[in-house]
Amino acid sequence: MCRRFTLAKTADQVANDFPELDVIPQIAPRYNIAPVQPVVTVLNIRPKNMDLTQWGLIPGWAEDATRGHAMINTFSDKLRDNKPGLRRLLKRKRCLILADGWYTWASVKGQKVKQPYYVTLESGRTFAFAGLFDEWHDKEGGYLITSSILTTRPNVAVRTIAETMPVVLSDAQMSHWVDPWFDDQRWLLNALAPCDPDLLRVTGVSTYVNSLRHDDPKCIHPMDVLGQGELF
After folding, report:
1. Distances from the Cα of 51 to the Cαs of 47, 97, 98, 151, 225, in angstroms?
2. Which band of pLDDT confidence, cut at 50, 70 and 90, is reported for residue 232?
3. Which of 40, 101, 154, 196 could be bridged to 159 by S-S, CB 3.0 to 4.6 A?
4. Rounded CA gap, 87 and 175, in Å?
């Protein structure tokens, strides 16, 4: 599961990594993005633009907004199980969620507190999670666009510390993912695979990141986790 992630880049840095997209001025370095907060998103209804969506998908048919906390992630196997609601979103409402790293927590034998790890690309560049979105209206006329990060089985880089990992799309995959006319269901499902483990860097960080009050560079400061005990 991806419960926290980062986009610790300035708007100019994001624009440099994604020159084909119109960058929104609201982008500022974020080191501890949490559920229900705004995330930088590219919707397939506006594939050349960045938007802000609320992280935690609320299906359009939901009666209230409380489901958003439960749907921050959507495991890719649920799409393969042919669930109608999710397959509708896969067909019509795909998105990219921009990031430059994510956190995962691993149990350590003999310790009550889990060890956090920070996962990035070796290159350090901004990337995109595969996501789904939906539009939700309340009875008073309020309107929200919410999103969910798609997850998959872990690759060898993270499988000793995580049971799942977010789907990180390649540049080639991103263009298809947000193409509103692209509808090859087999291709879309095949894209929901773990990325090449050689692309990833995994770094131990301190439990400072555990607090939602902390959103600064200390969250991603490397920590020597040797001597912390045996994982799992």
Report:
1. 10, 10, 10, 21, 37
2. very low
3. 154
4. 19
Domain boundaries, the chain: 5-102+125-199
- pTM of the complete model: 0.93
Per-residue pLDDT at 227: 47
Residues facing 6 on adjacent strands: 101
The rounded distance, in Å, linking the Cα atoms of 176 and 171 is: 9
Find all residues with CB under 8 Å of 221, minimum gap 6, and list them.
205, 206, 208
> Closest by alpha carbon to 209, among 23, 68, 34?
34
For residue 226, give both structure tokens. Answer: 């040797």
**pLDDT (tens digit, 9 = 90+) per residue, 34-82?**
999 999 999 999 999 999 999 999 988 777 776 666 799 999 988 887 6
Q: What is the largest CA-CA distance in the chain?
A: 55
For the stretch 81-134, pLDDT in tens is: 767 788 899 999 999 999 999 999 999 888 889 999 999 999 999 999 999 999
Sign of CA dihedral 116, 122, 126, 130: negative
* Cβ-contact 68, 54 below 8 angstroms: yes
Distance separating alpha carbons of residues 146 and 196, to the nearest angstrom: 28
Residue closest to 51 by CA, chosen among 119, 147, 143: 147
CA-nearest of 98, 127, 151, 150 to 199 is 127
Nearest to 180 by CA among 50, 21, 42, 44: 44
For domain 5-102+125-199, the CATH architecture is Alpha-Beta Complex (3.90)
